[in-house]
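agent: user wants the full assembly modeled, not chains individually. Plan: 1) parse entity lines 2) check alphabet per entity 3) run joint structure prediction 4) return tokens. Steps 1-2 passed, two entities, 924 residues total. Proceeding.
--- entities ---
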Amino acid sequence: MLTGYFYWWYGEGYKQSWQVAAAVLYEVADFFSLEILVKSWFAPWKNDVLSAQNAALSDTVKLWEQNLASRFIGIVLRSIVIFVAVISLAFLTILLGVGLVLWSVVPALIFILPVLAVWIVTR
Amino acid sequence: MKKSFQFGRARFIRLWDSSFVTIFRYLFITLGLASLLLLVINSFITITGAVGAIAIFLLAPLFVAESVNLFVSYLRHHPGFMLAEGLLANPFNRLDFEAQNVLAKWRDQTLGGLLTAFAQVDETKIILLRLGLSEGHFTPLQNQPFTEAALKQLLTAAPPKKIISIHQFLDIIFSLPVLQRLLAENELDEVTLNQVLGFYDAQHQLRYQQKAFWLNHTTRTGGIGKDWAVSYTQITDSLTTTVPPSVRQRALIWPLFSRQKLADQISQNLNKGGGQNLLLVGEPGSGKQEIFLNFAAKVMFYQTKTALDGATVRILDVQQLLAQASSSSASQQLLDALFAELSRAGNVILSINQIDQLLSSGQLGEADVSNVLAAHLQNQRVHIIGTMTPENYTKIVKPNAGLAEQFSVLEVSAPMETDLLPILLSHLNQLENRYNVFFTIEALSELIKLAARYVKDQASPLRELDLLETIAAANHAHNKLLVMPEDVEVAIEQKAQVPLQVKATEQKTLLNLEAELHKRVIGQNRAIKLVSDALLRARAGLSTGNRPVGTFLFLGPTGVGKTETAKALAAIYFGSDKKLIRLDMTEYADAAGLQKLLGTDPTTLPGALTVMIQENPSAVVLFDEFEKAAPAVKNVLLQLLDEGRLTTNYGKVLDFTNAIIIATSNAGSDYIKTQIENKTPIEGFEKPLIDKLIADKTFSPELLNRFDGTIVFAPLSPSEITQVVGLQITLLQAQVKKDKGIDLQIAPAVLQQLALKGYDPVFGARALERVIKNDLETAIAKQIITEDPKPGSVLTINTLS
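--- prediction returned ---
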């Protein structure tokens, strides 16, 4: 069992921990709709575009203004969410990176920590 | 065996899962987390070196407990981990950990002991109970020696597999001849056993997948910003409903078995150029909605791996649409506005359940709605998935080329027979918990078999699932935990209204069918014997269920008992005189006969036979004066006699496999009379009569050959007419007793008089019926008015005048 434990920890287990890290990042990106928001970053908010045929110039200008406003709202809101998403992902990446490093040293820590504790008491 | 590598690992997993180790695990976790907290506090407030050292020391057990726990969790789901070729040479190493648990419980070297061990492991305990096998069944096998070496040999001979699951292990054990016999005694066969074990094995694997990491099943939801690129949809919101997120289970967990292909085909079809709309065509209850929801779930959770992933799935509420519009034009405007909105929103899949309701709604006008829809169906930005029945597809969509070319069609037929048992099993857990009942496999197999044979007004699998619910509710009401095949038979008897169980009394009736028929039909000994024998064979289960129960052509002059035999059969075989569908074929003699018989439209002209057989699929169908039917009608009946099925013009399949088909004909009556007068026995002129009917082109040889029996009814002799008089008088006496409470007595002279007056070589017993009605009933009426007899008194008829 002991051989199996070490074999798994640095083999399949390590591979799976990477996969878990990737899956967590993927789910967070999905939660913030990162892909959709980036693709539609400059699109009008809720696709709210007004159009009119044979409208007077003044009306056309008003429509253009409203459409621009809709686009502006879309850009602002999406930018905020994209910013929060990127920050969250960066923070998570660091956290998961630490976790992966920790994973590599856990078997060693099992032996090191008691020795360290004894050393602290006896120094 | 017990020294095998895998057995050792299974023992470690059992130890790890034991309460003793679990208590320590949680203790280590608590102390470890407390230590971590302490070390964090240490960053802000300096604590003593000893306390810090203890905290650091206690982190080690936390790491041990949790890292070993992760390893055990992985191992549990991957029993083949680290099993090299050398280890696999020992077949015991190929058994998974649940199977190893069975071996651990196998205390003696007997077959009974091994099966008892299976019955003690949760995973197989339920399966054995479902198969109707409890520990009591294994007691006789306790004396049957079965050594470790024999088991090793059996496992070695099994099909090579790296890992043998506990279900496969049980399957291997059941391949032993002694257990095959045990299965046979419990009315189980190998195919059923394989289906049951296969189902539970698949469920087991799915449960593992659920427990394991979601790595192989990463799904997407679209997230918080999914709708931000889609325009406002007020009209859509008011007319449609969304698919609940709970359908995720359907996409990932609920199996569709062989029909998964259909669900996958939906996305393939919708992705094809110009194929943005699709119709799922199938009988109600065939599972169209289930297949659609599986597809919808895959779309919603980005599983189709096509451009459809992430699309918004909406279900149109047709009733809401019709309710919101006050007129035809308003409905059309609403529909226009809805599609304009959907088109603007983009990437929408609109499901219209029972789209035929919308297309055929009187309120909107069929042609108008079809045209409005046809115009919108060309819009590439909206996908429409509709469901409808084959009849309505043939009636509404097919004739409208503009509409038909906008849809690709997927036919949803009933699931394969081999799928039915797993489908029922997959619904059992919830149902059994709700009603507190337990279905045995024997009962489920009986349900599948009998439902296919006797319940024809519903499509599979809803037919079986509805029956399952009915039976569960009935057993629950009677506080009966175990559902047995008899409970299934009772439920199907009630639903199909056909006697199924050959009970003691019924057995007697069947064995004496000939005598029973003779209670109502006088003479015709040979004809009655032929019919009785044919039906006895069918009732004993020799009939295949792919043809009608029996098909007979009764030939003979009028009034000789042909129709009476059919009526008697309906009463004796199907339990009621009302189980007779009688069609006078003179009404179907013209060119429009076939349309009148089978119908052209489900609402305006459904067809006489179509309506009657759907209401009464288990009945005697009597085609009176068959020779007069139009040639087209006779031709179509060829298929009925052959396959027990007919398809109407509008696509409805009629099932006659539970019916007895009787055609009567007067054709050749003169020939029969001449032969009888010449004292030729029926056997002697039967063949020449048939040849004559073929030569006269009354019936084609193909048609005559398809009947189970062409039975000649001879004219009644004067003595037989006297017996008919007796029979008719008995019926009349019973009627008078019931209506007036009077005991009617007829003098022997009157009986003689009736027989003499009623004997007519041309009209047979029909003339007698007239005499009884005109003369006897009139005489009784006169006497009742004259004497005014009180209930309980005796009324004697001494003369007819």
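agent: reporting back. Chain A has a mean pLDDT of 90. The interface with chain B takes residues 1, 4-5, 7-9, 12-13, 16, 19-20, 23, 26-27, 30-34, 36-37, 39-40, 43, 45-48, 74, 77-78, 81, 106-107, 109-111, 113-114, 116-118, 120-121, 123 of chain A (CB under 8 Å).
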